[in-house]
Amino acid sequence: MPFVDFAELKTRVSIEEAMQMLGLNLTLNGGQYRGACPTCRSGGDRALIITPAKGLFYCFAKKTGGDVIALTAHIRGIGVKDAAEELHRAFGTVQNGTSTVSKSRATAPQAPEARKQPAFDPEAYAARLDASHASLASLGISAETLKAWKAGHASSGTNRGRLAIALRDRDGNILGFAGRSLGDEQPSLTIPNGINPQEIIFGADRVEAGTLYLVRDVLDVLKAHESGVTNCVCFLTDITALQVEMLAALMATKHCDTVELF
């Protein structure tokens, strides 16, 4: 098998073309294809999300996502190299060999400037976090995504040895940094003093009109976002009546028609 240029392949084969090749029968809704995952056979009839505009997919059942090659690997149950070769065989080679194609990468929207407190500068704190730290590799989240969410490995302070991640209000202002454990350490999530976790819906500042996805963990929100599912949020505690009211208010404000639970 000849060498397959992954970057060139992803510019040549759209994720919608791969959907047809893979025989995926999904429903288009609000710019995203949704349906059951034929590989996982769990998670319900909307577990698989494909976002053509970003060329990405996400499977809530497996909690994995990625580009057109990753989608092929996931559905076929094969490695990414074999998936790339299958796409290459199915869609041929570039016809115009003189053109130069660059790999385009979806980037997360730039967050609003954080509100600064006299005794604590959240931007300075975020700048000290290491999004490429070796201990974060097992999370399966890119350094680019972690940086976009103001997250990274903390080497000092109350979050030392944890994934520190910004907590924001619905306007995008940073309230503080939670600490997510990287193993079995308890509690799995620590909240800064002075912040009531029941008053926060993580990811609410990024919600737009359409279906809202409610997951169980901040890491699930980041993984979904990285795979093109931007309307994904989670609570930081067990669900309370107050949080249900907050979620309903968020959906009404952002014009979210339905909510899917994972």
UniProtKB/TrEMBL annotation:
SMART domains xref list: ZnF_CHCC
Name this protein carries in UniProt: Zinc finger CHC2-type domain-containing protein
Biased composition (Polar residues): 96-107
Organism whose genome encodes this protein: Bradyrhizobium cytisi
Pfam families in UniProt: Zn_ribbon_DnaG
This protein's UniProt keywords: Metal-binding, Zinc, Zinc-finger
Zinc-finger as UniProt keyword: yes
Residues covered by the Zinc finger CHC2-type domain: 33-88
Biological process annotations from GO: DNA replication, synthesis of primer
A cellular component annotation (GO) from this entry: cytoplasm
GO MF annotations, alphabetized: DNA binding; DNA-directed RNA polymerase activity; zinc ion binding
InterPro entries: DNA_primase_Znf_CHC2, DnaG_primase, Znf_CHC2
Signal sequence interval, chain numbering: none
Annotated stretches, region: Disordered: 96-118
